[in-house]
Design a protein that fits this description.
Elements lengths: L4 E5 L2 E5 L5 H7 L23 E4 L6 E2 L10 E3 L5 H16 L17 H8 L23 E3 L9 H8 L7 E3 L6 E3 L16 H5 L5 E3 L12 E6 L8 E9 L2 E8 L14 H5 L14 E3 L5 E3 L2 H19 L6 E3 L5 H14 L5 E3 L4
This protein binds iron/sulfur cluster (2 copies) and FE2/S2 (inorganic) cluster.
Amino acid sequence: MIDHFTITVDGKPVAAKPGETVVRACEREGIHIPTLCDDKRLDPAGACRACLVEVDGQRRLQPSCAWKATPGQVVKTHVTSPRVQRHQDVLVSLYMADHKLDAEGLPVETENRNELRRWALDTNPIALESVEAPRVARAGDTNPYIQYNPELCILCARCTRYCDEIEAVNAITLTHRGSETTIGTAGMRGLLETSCELCGGCIDTCPTGALIEKKAIGILPQQIERKVRTTCNYCGVGCQMDLNVAKVDGVEKVVRVTSPPPGETVNDGNLCIKGRFAYDFIHHKDRITEPMIRKADGKLHAVSWDEALKFAAEGMKRVAQRHGPESMGFISSARCTGEENFLMSKVARAAFKSGNVHSCAAT
Ligand code: SF4
Ligand code: SF4
Ligand code: FES
């Protein structure tokens, strides 16, 4: 069985794998084709028509996000096809006629990026009269995390497909008909009254910022100064997350948590409700940020890590001497890393000669 073959894109040879779509093969070669409804975690929908290309032998332009590459196929993108470029210019204009624009007449920037804005900057949109779409949001949805703005929705269905194909809960769906089509729930209930798990994956996949995180409202992508990659410790899976840091009132703060892109880490672009939204504790005023020891006055006093570790070690040694190693028990957690659990086992078995070591993962 062949493991790859060659297609031609804009006159250049491009390697493709059997079953692969044209857009995926091009992506690997660094050939940019605009997309809106495409997400590599989801089955192709071919819904937005942004990625249309010319394929030799095909009368109509074809969606490269859904069109499978075949050996010897010849493809032209907007770079070499004036027909594709014309299509893109008109399509962007139509999307923009039904989208919230800024003072410069471009699709507005949002807290969760806006790929339509990026694309509009790469094309030559025609100024069309704007239409007021009668799409509605879910009035009275009091969920604490997710906000839907129908003015920014392009009905690409990435959110509903994510909710179905990845999260498998079908809390949201395309509802109503014609120009009233919107993202709704059963009976247009608030998300808390549906099967929604508040994973936030719909925010992550939304290309235009029609879905945004309520807690991060007002913080635009360009305000993010850096992203710090870390491992989520709410459970033992080891999902990777990026802590987005921005200056708020002159102070650096974690203002949202995002996942690394799909395909890069074990969680493949996904996070759960805790990983994505439960970060308020980081800057909470009650958070204990330094070790403390209860001293002779009965009160807790902040001390250095060296002093705290010495104090704990001496206390543990006294217990072992007085009552023997079997009097001691060491409990670790699935929320710690494998290395931390290994070290806990070492402390118990090698340092204190006790076999009483356990992890909540074992129960
Ligand atoms: S938060 Fe997750 S479960 Fe809820 S609607 Fe969005 S994708 Fe579906
Ligand atoms: S809310 Fe976002 S992801 Fe969902 S259909 Fe609208 S634009 Fe697409
Ligand atoms: S990205 Fe191909 S049709 Fe939307």
